[in-house]
Amino acid sequence: MDLSAFPYLQGNYAPVEVESDFDNNQLTVEGTVPQSLTGAFMRDGANVAFQPNHYVYPLDGDGMIHAVYFDDGKVHYRNRWVETNHLKTERQFGRMIYGSVGKLLEVPPEVIAAGGEPSPIRNTANTNVIYHGNKLLAMWEGGFPHLLNSDLSTVGLFDYDGALQPGDALTAHPKICPVSGDLITCTQRWDSPNYYLQVFDKNAKHKQTTLVEFERKGIIHDLQITDNYVIIFYAPAFHSLEKAMRGEDPFEWEAQLGTKIIVIPRDGSSGQKVFETEAFFSWHFCNGFESGGKIIIDYVWINSIPFTQAQGTGVEKQPRRMYRMELDLQTKAVSNEQFSDVFCEFSRVDERRMGKTYRYGFAASSNRDWGDAHGYNCTGRYDFHTGQTQLWEYGAEANAGEPVYVANPESDKEADGWVMCFVYNPEEGAYLSILSAGDFASGPVAKVKVPARVPNGFHANWMQGLTLN
């Protein structure tokens, strides 16, 4: 492949071509892996298999899962492509067939005649990987998730026993209620502007659907839960499928419309509330909770839509900052203040505090300027009690992924857990970093060195109790 034309396929954004396995004897560990951990750290990401037709922002590329399994102090690494129908069809023909989200291509008649995947919209399965209700799922919010085995082999598309209907697109960024175990998520459709809040119980059985009506289908990636509500940001960011098929820029930003904050009762009752602010965009919430008649929301703020069809505009590198928003449920007043001036993204918390009061947020962060493609060379800890932001830098040229909080099974204190992320430092290679949540200044308590490159990716999670076999 010639990837030289695409900034977001250079350096550690470049794909890897090999699926690898390294057991405890082949991995080098610096420091001490927490003995009490049994489970797996997994991260999804875009990993192009064939020469792309278009690649401005890393939304495209076939999904690949990278995993480190923990069991009795021993570790095992493996990576696998998600075997989607689109990837299998391209392998059958030995070339790129399906276009990008920003520039779709018609599927050739000979591909369809040969039984290839007929949809021009590639289900990349590249955005997130979660473990809920004993189901391991690779997710992309333009279609169904893919069910995986614990060894990362692909079972196939998963429709939640028929709860998802053809045309439903399940979000790639759900939340899990720490009290009930419910998965709070949503579906959108390419043929409808509406948003459908979906709830699946702790056993992955469908429980509830709540309709949120919109005049236009917005680009909505994340949602936030509190004890009684679900909150979404409806920014004036839209995608035109028709323009994408014509080769035109399908991404639309209409700042004059402002951004609406929609507050939806979790129990499915009526009484949705709409708050209005000046236009902003956000990929990710950090956390949210209720306090004194207000909803407090911590999230990563971006000024406008951070992607376009054209290359070299730099919109994807615009500032991303941690913000705190307060919504007054009585007066509908909105307060929206910057919490930190650190460039950050992929914000996470101790999932046991999801939707509840908490102290620490964590995010992929940066303390340097980047060239053609932005990235993150630090893990940041955002202390919402003291107002301080603390960074652990992995090196000026390093690339650090989404940090995942992993709870200490012997403690309910936030400070006693660990924060894991994949890091690639040209001087050290690839490794899984394990930081103490309460002691950032001391650096990683362990580094699991991987003798292969782990490219930059998207979302990661800790799969409690999931082992390789």
Kindly summarize this structure in a few lines.
The protein has 469 residues and is mainly beta.
Helix content: under 10%
Shape: globular
Structural class: mainly beta
What percentage of the residues does DSSP assign to strands (E)?
A: 35-45%
Number of strands: 34
The CATH topology annotation reads as: Neuraminidase
* Major sheet details: 6 strands, antiparallel
**Rg measurement, Å:** 21 Å
Q: Which stretches of 5+ consecutive residues score pLDDT under 50?
A: none
- Which architecture name does CATH use? 6 Propeller
Report the total helices.
Answer: 3
Number of domains: 1
Per CATH, the class reads: Mainly Beta
What does this structure look like?
This protein is mainly beta and 469 residues long. The chain has a single domain (7-464), classed as Neuraminidase (6 Propeller). The chain is built from three helices and 34 strands. The protein has helices at residues 85-93, 109-113, 241-245; strands spanning 21-22, 28-31, 39-43, 64-71, 74-81, 128-132, 135-139, 146-148, 154-157, 168-170, 175-176, 183-189, 192-200, 206-212, 224-225, 229-234, 237-239, 251-253, 259-265, 273-277, 285-291, 294-302, 320-328, 334-338, 343-348, 360-366, 378-383, 389-393, 399-400, 404-406, 418-425, 429-436, 439-450, 460-464. The strands form eight sheets. Strands 2, 29, 30, 31, 32 and 33 form a six-stranded antiparallel β-sheet that branches. A hairpin with a 2-residue loop joins strand 6 (128-132) and strand 7 (135-139). The two termini are 35 Å apart. The mean pLDDT is 95.
